[in-house]
């Protein structure tokens, strides 16, 4: 049997859940700069749709603004739902947070539909007493 990785204490786990609740609301409501501010200054985001990770808050905010504009033009809203979260502490004080993320798309005047299901692996660090994403890697379940 494989040894189980250590898990974060309950208070840290709850803090990470609250972090994602806020972060995904920022993204879903188009608050690009606020969302980008949940990453470290040099944080990276590697989505499966891009050949290279996006690095740094200015480029993260730009990507979020572009995504929000595209959704507005399509008259669609996306809602990210983070679930099946595990939080593993590392010796350096960082946390590895792994989750399944469902993205629900809602067309204006239309029904909601499941848009994507992804796996998200974040490395979270503390700066100034708050959690920030240092590195995010997203993989899609419908791609090898």
Description:
- This protein has helices at about 10-30, 30-35, 55-75, and strands spanning about 40-45, 55, 75-90, 95-105, 110-125, 130-140.
- It is of the alpha+beta class.
- It has one domain: Roll (Nuclear Transport Factor 2, Chain: A), CATH 3.10.450.50.
- It has a 6-stranded mixed β-sheet with strand order 2-1-6-5-4-3, with helices on one face.
- The two termini are about 25 Å apart.
Give structural attributes.
single chain, 144 residues, alpha+beta, Nuclear Transport Factor 2, Chain: A, six-stranded mixed sheet, 6 strands, 28% helix, globular, AknV, NTF2-like_dom_sf, SnoaL-like
Quick take:
The protein has helices spanning 10-28, 32-36, 57-73; strands at residues 39-46, 54-55, 76-89, 95-107, 112-127, 130-140. It is α+β, with helices and mostly antiparallel strands and 144 residues long. It has a single domain, classed as Roll (Nuclear Transport Factor 2, Chain: A).
What order do the strands of the largest sheet run in, or round the barrel if closed?
2-1-6-5-4-3
Please write the string of helix (H) and strand (E) elements.
HHEEHEEEE
- Distance from N terminus to C terminus (CA atoms, Å) equals 27 Å
| Domain tally | 1
Helical proportion, percent range: 25-40%
- Count the helices. How many? 3
Quickly give the structural class. Answer: alpha+beta
Shape: globular
- Architecture (CATH level 2) name: Roll
How much is the radius of gyration in Å?
16 Å
Beta content comes to: 35-45%
Beta strand count: 6
Largest sheet: 6 strands, mixed
**CATH class (first level) name:** Alpha Beta
Tell me which oligomeric state these chains represent.
single chain
- The average pLDDT is 95
At CATH level 3, the topology is Nuclear Transport Factor 2, Chain: A
